[in-house]
Design a protein that fits this description.
By secondary structure, this protein is of the alpha/beta class. The protein has a single domain, classed as 3-Layer(aba) Sandwich (Rossmann fold), CATH 3.40.50.300. The chain is 58% helix and 12% strand. The chain contains eight helices and five strands; from the N terminus they run E-H-E-H-H-E-H-H-E-H-H-E-H. A five-stranded parallel β-sheet has the order 2-3-1-4-5, sandwiched between helices. Helix 3 runs parallel beside helix 5 and helix 4 crosses helix 7. It is globular and about 45 Å long.
């Protein structure tokens, strides 16, 4: 069983990954944020480091998906390989923060990699307004995220919505997180019930 959680920066992916892994006894696979050698540099100079950052994430997530399928374990994954290719890289390109040459090279790499991987059995999309994202980002207080602009988050949200509308790789569950706090047992149980319903439908 491979369940993946998708959503914008600050939507609650990591929190839900942690709580679901506890609830179901699944192995969590987190996004490689702490060990990412490009992240700080990227937020300081997006244009210079965008391609390096995206290739790093692509490589990291490709390895993750290959390991997930090899392991045969039940896994809950924090962010998918598809988000980099459908949201983050095209957004950087459209904002002129990644050159067309780099973008085309990146997409060519992704298209090749995607022929070797299987999509998650269930994708959970965390839908959040920009104000919720900002609140969550401020709450966790990562220093390199302080410079994230509102227009950047807004553009990412628009791309997420467009991607989810056309998502056809497998089962999809959309959770609106604006009025939710996953750390509250009553809110978490609503999500768990919905996930259970989807999982039962897989068998």
């Amino acid at each position: 069983m491979h369940v993946a959680i998708a959503g914008n920066i600050g939507s609650g992916k990591t929190t839900l990954t942690r709580l679901m892994s506890k609830q179901f006894g699944w192995k969590p696979h987190y996004e490689d944020v702490e060990n990412n050698p490009y992240l700080h540099s990227f937020y300081e100079d997006m244009q210079r480091w965008s391609f390096n950052l995206q290739v790093y994430f692509l490589n990291s997530r490709f390895r993750q998906v290959v390991e997930i399928r090899k392991s045969g374990d039940n896994i809950v994954q924090d962010r998918t390989i598809y988000e980099d290719a459908h949201i983050f890289a095209p957004n950087l390109h459209s904002m002129n923060l990644m050159s067309t040459r780099d973008f085309e090279n990146y997409i060519s790499l992704f298209e090749l990699m995607s022929t070797f991987i299987q999509p998650p059995d269930l994708l959970i999309y965390l839908r959040a307004s920009v104000s919720t994202l900002v609140e969550q980002i401020q709450k966790r207080g990562r220093d390199y995220e302080e410079s994230i602009r509102l227009d950047y988050l807004k553009l990412l949200n628009e791309r997420y919505e467009a991607w989810i509308e056309t998502y056809s790789h497998g089962k999809l569950l959309i959770i609106n997180v604006d009025d939710m706090d996953f750390n509250k047992p009553e809110d978490l149980s609503i999500v768990i019930d919905k996930v259970n319903a989807e999982i039962n439908g897989l068998f």
